[in-house]
From TrEMBL:
This is Flavodoxin family protein. It holds the Pfam family FMN_red. It comes from the Bacteria. The lineage of its organism: Bacteria, Bacillati, Actinomycetota, Actinomycetes, Kitasatosporales. InterPro entries: Flavodoxin/NO_synth, Flavoprotein-like_sf, FMN_Rdtase-like_dom. Residues 6-151 form the Flavodoxin-like domain.
Length: 194
């Protein structure tokens, strides 16, 4: 059985998104994937090659002013070299984001990631969880407590550092990592069988 390779291409402005990237990494590794963390704010040629060789790429960024960070946008624009050669065609893709507000226009960041993935010809993997914390018997400690379907979304208070990332959001990011790794394993096995 081939071990899937999952890379997490992320930017973190104040450390909150890095906590989520590490959670995605842990979930994917727990599911048996080989995982690479790539900080797109200081990406190297070797890291571009890691992304090219991956079965799945998970995009991550804080949501600033309703979209991904400037550093992530710079990475996305630089990925056009891969677009020209179709280097990421038929890879899996997923995403996660964080902002201080419960909504904070995080959906727009996740949608930005899906369009980026679609332009590269990638296949999007959603969160695969029902929403949590949406009934009188629910709790802020539920997985997917903010109720996103497209990817993992987290809320971190703007007066707290990375230690303030909510445990349920960390667990949701771990779930995303496991899901991507599991889907990548199926995808790789299917490609090998075809």
């Amino acid at each position: 059985m081939t071990t899937p390779v999952v890379s997490i291409a992320y930017h973190s402005g104040f450390g909150h998104t890095a906590v989520l990237a590490e959670a995605v990494r842990a979930g994917a590794a727990d599911a048996g994937a080989t995982v690479h963390l790539v900080d797109v704010g200081q990406i190297t040629d070797e890291q571009w090659e890691l992304l090219d060789a991956s079965d799945a790429i998970v995009f991550g960024s804080p949501t600033y002013m309703g979209t991904a960070s400037g550093a992530f946008h710079t990475f996305a624009e630089a990925s056009s070299k891969r677009w020209f050669t179709r280097a990421w065609q038929d890879k899996l893709a997923a995403g996660f984001t964080n902002s201080a507000s419960k909504s904070g226009d995080k959906l727009h960041t996740l949608q930005f990631f899906t369009v980026l993935a679609a332009q590269h010809g990638m296949h999007w993997v959603g969160l695969g969880l029902m929403p949590g914390w949406n009934s009188s018997t629910a709790s802020e400690n539920d997985l997917n407590r903010l109720g996103f379907f497209l990817g993992a979304a987290a809320q971190s208070n703007n007066d707290q550092g990375p230690e303030g990332v909510h445990k349920a959001d960390i667990a949701t990011a771990e779930h995303l990592g496991r899901r991507v790794a599991e889907q990548a394993r199926i995808f790789v096995a299917g490609r090998a069988a075809a």
